[in-house]
């Protein structure tokens, strides 16, 4: 059986990847600091509690499990926080990733699937965002991810590291069986915040900005179901193991929804209205981020079949009813 080292395997997307890896016959080895994640989310393979800044812990994990590849999810990922505390983002996301790839080279592990983001593109005012688009991040989160992409390119040239880079658009939803899901404390992402507001766990959702140059004035995002996203990761892993080499893929549906449109879907999907108010823009937000690419479909055979708003909201709601994680 093939081990895959999953950094951030106790987090939202990483835990879903671990489930799908198990179903596909791999053994996911979670490497996670638990700083923003949960031990109880590790359900599908061995767990190494460690920090990417701890090179010895990484070396020990590679020596023990000899993974055929790495899926690298571990990162800080909140735009607002990144704008307030850029140093944490550069240290964790960039130095942590540098340690990881150096440990890979030392261990002779050549394949990495990396979680990058559409935030590397920044705001491009109506430009269709495909993989060739310029990368002009607006915040330290996007900048730190772009820097890791550059590290991967350099390590490819010099050390033969092969990376599939996925630039995620907005990930939402949860495992349909609700074994794992999205659980941050505090929650900041739109759909889970909306679910909390709909469930009465918070007073209201604040819409950040109503004066963007979009049809209804609120930000537009391209939402992808987490199960579709991790399905792409399996395809990316197999791409690497088949020797197809480095490639960058956007993961989005090509359709954007405004914050108001997302909120309007909540009642139908959950039976509950979303109490909301209007506030100022959040620093670092782009007006619109929508994927214009079909590359993942054409080259990986990826099709985001679960990524409708009603489905993502309904799955997030079902997961929320489980009470999430507490440790
Ligand atoms: N958003 C909002 N209120 C919230 C959380 C998010 O209006 O409480 C908006 C945010 O400004 C952005 C969109 O929802 O336009 C998606 O934000 P999220 O944090 O979910 O993801 P991001 O696009 O920052 O990765």
Explain this structure to me?
- The chain is α/β, with parallel strands linked by helices and 327 residues long.
- The chain has two domains: 2-172 and 223-251, NAD(P)-binding Rossmann-like Domain (Rossmann fold, 3-Layer(aba) Sandwich), CATH 3.40.50; 190-221 and 254-321, UDP-galactose 4-epimerase, domain 1, CATH 3.90.25.
- The chain is 39% helix and 18% strand.
- It contains ten helices and 14 strands.
- The protein has helices at residues 12-23, 55-65, 79-84, 86-107, 140-159, 190-198, 226-241, 259-270, 295-300, 309-321, and strands spanning 2-7, 26-32, 47-49, 69-72, 111-117, 162-168, 170-172, 205-208, 220-221, 223-225, 247-251, 257-258, 276-279, 288-289.
- It has a seven-stranded parallel sheet with strand order 3-2-1-4-5-6-11, sandwiched between helices. A three-stranded mixed sheet has the order 12-9-14.
- The two termini are 29 Å apart.
- 52% of the residues are buried.
- The model has no long low-confidence stretch (mean pLDDT 97).
- It binds uridine-5'-diphosphate.
- Uridine-5'-diphosphate (UDP) binds at residues 79, 170, 188-190, 193, 205-208, 219, 221, 259, 282, 285.
- Residues 4-252 form the NAD-dependent epimerase/dehydratase domain.
- Its cofactor is NAD(+).
- Homodimer.
- This is UDP-glucose 4-epimerase.
- It comes from Thalassobacter stenotrophicus.
């Amino acid at each position: 059986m093939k081990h895959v080292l999953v950094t951030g395997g106790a987090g939202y997307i990483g835990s879903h990847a671990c489930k799908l890896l198990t179903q596909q016959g791999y053994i996911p080895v979670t490497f996670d600091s638990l700083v923003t994640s949960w031990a109880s989310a590790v359900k599908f393979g061995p767990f190494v509690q460690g920090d990417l800044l701890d090179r010895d812990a990484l070396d020990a994990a590679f020596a023990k499990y000899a993974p055929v590849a790495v899926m690298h999810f571990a990162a800080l990922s909140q735009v607002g926080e990144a704008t307030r505390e850029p140093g944490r983002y550069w240290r964790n996301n960039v130095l942590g990733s540098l340690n990881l790839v150096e440990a890979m080279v030392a261990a002779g592990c050549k394949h990495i699937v990396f979680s990058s983001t559409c935030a590397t593109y920044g705001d491009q005012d109506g430009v269709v965002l495909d993989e060739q688009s310029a990368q002009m991040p607006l915040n330290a989160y996007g900048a730190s991810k772009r820097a890791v992409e550059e590290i991967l390119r350099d390590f490819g040239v010099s050390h033969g590291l092969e990376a599939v880079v996925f630039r995620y658009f907005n990930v939402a939803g949860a495992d349909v069986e609700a074994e794992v899901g999205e659980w941050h404390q505090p929650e900041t992402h739109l759909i889970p915040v909306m679910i909390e507001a709909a469930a009465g766990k918070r007073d209201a959702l604040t819409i950040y900005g109503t004066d963007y140059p979009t049809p209804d004035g609120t930000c537009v995002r391209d939402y992808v179901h987490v199960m579709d996203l991790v399905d792409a990761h399996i395809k990316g892993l197999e791409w690497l193991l088949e020797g197809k080499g480095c490639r960058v893929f956007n993961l989005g549906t090509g359709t954007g929804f405004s914050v108001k449109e997302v909120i309007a879907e909540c009642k139908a999907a959950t039976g509950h209205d979303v109490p909301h108010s209007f506030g100022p823009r959040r620093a670092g937000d782009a007006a619109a981020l929508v994927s214009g690419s079909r590359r993942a479909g054409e080259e990986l055979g990826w099709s985001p079949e679960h990524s409708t708003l009603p489905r993502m909201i309904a799955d997030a709601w079902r997961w929320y009813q489980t009470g999430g994680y507490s440790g």
